[in-house]
Amino acid sequence: MTNHWIDFKNSDVILIMGANPAENHPISFRWIMKAKDAGAKVIVVDPRFTRSASKADLYAPLRSGTDIAFLGGMINYILQNKQYFEEYVKNYTNAAYLVNADFRMPGELNGLFSGYDPKKRSYDPKAWSFQKNSDESIKTDPTLQDPHCVFQLMKKHYSRYTPELVSRITGTPKDKLLEVYKLYSSTGKPDKAGTELYAMGWTQHTVGTQNIRAMSIIQLLLGNIGIAGGGINAMRGESNVQGSTDQGLLFHILPGYLPVPSGDLKDTAAYIEKYTPKTKDPQSANWWGNRNKYLISYLKAIYGAKAAKENDYGYNWLPKLDPGMNGSWLMIFDNMLKGKFKGFFAWGQNPACSGTNTTKVRNALAKLEWMVTVNLFDNETASFWKGPGVDSASVKTEVFLLPAAASFEKEGSISNSGRWAQWRYKAVNPLGQSKPDAEIIHELYQKLKAMYAKEGGALPEQLTNLTWNYGFKRADGTIKSVDIHAVAKEINGYFLEDVEDIPKLKPGEKAPPPPPPGTPKKMLGKKGELAAGFAQLQADGRTSCGNWIYCQSYNEKGNMMARRGKKDPTGLGMFPEWSWCWPVNRRIIYNRASCDVNGKPFNLKKAAVYWNPNAPLPNGKTGAWVGDVPDGPWPPMADEKEGKKPFIMRADGVAAIFGPGMKDGPFPEHYEPMESPLPENLMSKQMTNPAVKIFKDANVKEDVLASNDARFPYVASTYRVTEHWQTGVMTRNTPWLLELQPRQFCEMSVELAKEKGISNGDTVEISSVRGKIDAVAMVTPRFKPFKIGDKIVHEIGMPWCFGWHTPGVGDAANLLTPTAGDANTMIPETKAFMVGIARKG
Amino acid sequence: MADTINQAARKGILVDTARCIGCRSCQVACKQWNKLDADKTVNQGTFENPRDLTSALYNRIRFVEKETPEAVTWRFLNERCMQCGDAGCIKVCPSPGALYRTKDGIVAYNKEKCISCKYCVSACPFNIPRYDANDKVSKCNLCQSRIDGGMTPACAKACPTEALKFGKRNDLIARAKAAKKEIYGENVLNGLGVAYALEGPPEQYGLPPNPSIPLSIFLWKDVIKPLGILGFWGSIGAMMLHYVTIGPKKVDDDLNNKEGGNE
User: Do B74 and A23 touch (CB under 8 A)?
Assistant: First the structure.
């Protein structure tokens, strides 16, 4: 999230689209209700009338997989009706940038942007480059009139998204569309805040990333980023999924969102050169310019004294990806099925239920020599070898199930969606032989290290050289158990040597005269001290830091994450002394964009920060930001000498409406899901996202799609319910929760049920081209047929929390979902696919 | 037993249905605090489960789905003992101390004193009391043990949106009225301890618009029971009451009662 949970209460309009927080994030509704108490309006856009919709002031249905059409229509509405916040757009976004004159868009290129290579199914982003001046700076038109400027291109691109066409694609009635557009764009006024809450309803599509991009553009047009009650807020589906992502859970990022190096980057110099953006703009803070400090401090954290300048800080030991390699979820099981893995750790997960196209996942597990599952309960994955239709005798995979401790059986931090890292204590001891994950990892490490010492192996250093200062060391160097505080401190980082505080000189600035001899040196930190914040980290090995964005979380003042102070000085619910949030306890990211170029808040009543030019500073100067921790101490932009632009993580200091970082186009464009009810895309000749990977292998019979296929005429979506969590491994084993939702069900409209002769409560069979499941029919007016183009399209939905391992609940909904992933992230498209349905028996 | 109530000291819950998101934290939190077993349920084509209160389910959410030409609504009603100010169950209970009023105005019960007569079932205008496997009365007592310890009832504590708000009844009602909410249960039956702010007419939620204690209970309490002092007439009175409220004894009564607890 750019903002945080409590901040929802500061909104004037809350758009819930791509999420169902009443059911999946019930606590969020505490703050949504408080916003409503203060007069806020809540909009819910969802294919189905959900428990969230029941609390909305305005509900609009849309067909799954058509969010970009819906949002593109909103962009068009905002531009046509001049609802955008001009001052914000001009100063804080790249709307004024000029794109090269050869750039063409989908309206002219049959649904494609310039630079597409159909053979490679990818774009050359050079085709989307900006025009440059002779000094390499980007050409701009501050009046936003140039036909090649981002603003005009955006206007032209989205002029195709008329309410009529959008309605034909999404199935949303035109009057509802316009009602939503009107209400939400009312937050374009300087003193109004609109927030967007999304979750997997937006991400799990082949256009997932672009769904969020489209909303980001809307938020920038309306000046809703950086302000209290605004932002674009991903509600995470697990209590600590934010934390695990921060700490490098995904295949392509190291802790702190440093890219995983690829094999062609031979040394730290090459890595730093590639991943350090450059700018000549003195007004751009370009924070990623510090990449070198974060990488070297990370290497020092994991390899300690073994990492030295002479061996390039152990960079060679870091695991590398092959250039261009994708190691995402879909690829893991694709490769596993093809026999490319010997072993697999399914740690705290249940892929034989959660994995899209579950048959493929289950078949892949049978190709392994061994699998270790670490979980609270036995589940579909650990017991896949005795699952329905499996000939157990033929499965050779050796399976180990290690019992893990639950969250309340161990101490540690949990980072919530709002980036708040909150320390939690152990409530009870783990049951039986179950252990906290850290202990299991620790034992595994010790065993592996001993094996390497005894037997040797390929590149043992990447494991044997790891620091492991996680508790009291015995004489032989081993530790008995993991001290989780030591781990937290390593993540925060240390001074490994005394580091003197030498002020950085600005270009042209003269060095101050040396102090008289005998003057004590001013120190940034002393050897052994915990770093106070990432601004102290060094690129020369004198500091360590396991994750730069968590630097400050556990410093010499103590464990900041364990704080429980209840002060709320701004009255905006930021609670700066409650737990700790990254980065540097900043509760609203890009908060300097909540003020004009002079630092005056756009909304005086809900000022996240403001610039006080008279605030005295310790160095004798004056001027400071007051309120939330600002995005850097520099004065606001209007100060030509010292001022900085607000979007400090962008090399150019402004937010990107035109986004060259995407694989599937600089502007979001509507494409149909890989499985669609339509013979053609009503927006263009390009049916599906041109940059997605196509899983087509004659040897993989599991990977089949059925688009516009009479056998599977109904759109389907999967979702979660309040009563169960993820695949239900924990909740299906909690009888009180199984009592509330005892069995797989399928929601459908009264109209579809009538057409198929289905009554409420009947058992039905739902089938896709990949598999079938049984479910109880829930016939409800909360689902309505859509009018798409000239035809009626039905949609159904079902939860994915059930699996065969719990008797009588039904098998996994993911048996139906496709092997198809987003062009940028490869997250599976489980929110829009095609099925058939029939009454059973 | 004489049932007197001090309105000023009365504690209760205000259920604001406009705030309820149907998450059912209340249902689960209640089971946890009161150590109640899970009921075995089946999905009957609705989110609502169990479909009725049981001896192991003291409160539950009723899911009310409605369609008009203009819109669909989905409303959620917390169903439980209303803690009536004029409680039919206490009135009718022939065993002193089995059902009684606490100093906070809660309708509490003591299973050890319950004689399994089930008169309270018939006397309840809201069909609340259930009988457990030992044939003893079971229902919500607003987590009396928690209130005695200065805590909020488990359901209200767990409610994320303050749809269930616990406190001094007078304050809760005053606050809801100040917010221009329509109150159900303000004065009826001498005021319900669990009062409601509804978004529509009570019938829409399956609540009786004018709840009252069945006439037979008045007969018992105010006419026949006093005669019971005369001893002999008392037993006749009890028989009459049984006939009026429950009907003649049936052979399969026991069987029905057993099934009643399991949906």
Answer: no
Which residue does chain B place closest to A51, by CA atoms?
B21
Name every chain B residue with its beta carbon within 8 A of the beta carbon of A738: 38
Across the interface, whether the CB atoms of A741 and B49 are under 8 A apart is answered: yes
Which residues in chain A have Cβ-Cβ distances shorter than 8 Å to B22? 22, 51, 54, 722
Cross-chain CB nearest to A740 (options B24, B65, B75) = B24
- A754-809 pLDDT, tens digit per residue, is 999 999 999 999 999 999 999 999 999 999 999 999 999 999 999 999 999 999 99
- Give chain A positions within 8 Å (CB) of B27: 736, 740
Average of per-residue pLDDT across B115-142:
96
Kindly indicate whether the domain formed by A329-464 is annotated with CATH number 3.30.390.50. no
Q: Are B74 and A782 inside 8 Å of each other by CB?
A: yes
* Per-residue pLDDT reduced to its tens digit, A109-165: 999 999 999 999 999 999 999 999 998 899 999 999 999 999 999 999 999 999 999
Q: In three state form, how does the secondary structure of A339-402 look?
A: CCCCEEEEECCCHHHHCCCHHHHHHHHCCCCEEEEEECCCCCCCCHHHCCCCCHHHCCCEEEEE
> Considering CB atoms only, which of B21, B24, B40 is closest to A55?
B21
Determine whether the interchain pair A739/B72 forms a contact, defined as Cβ–Cβ distance below 8 Å.
no
Q: What domains lie within chain B, and their CATH numbers? A: 16-83+146-205 (3.30.70.20), 88-140+212-260 (3.30.70.20)
Q: What is the pLDDT of residues A223-280, one digit of tens each?
A: 999 999 999 999 999 999 999 999 999 999 999 999 999 999 999 999 999 999 999 9
**pTM summary value:** 0.95
Peptide bond into B50 cis (omega under 30): yes
**A714-839: which CATH architecture?**
Beta Barrel (2.40)
Question: Amino acid identity of A394?
Answer: S
The CATH number of A5-237, from 3.20.20.100, 3.40.228.10, 3.40.50.300, 3.90.550.10, is 3.40.228.10
Nearest alpha carbon to residue B21 among A49, A724, A38, A54: A54
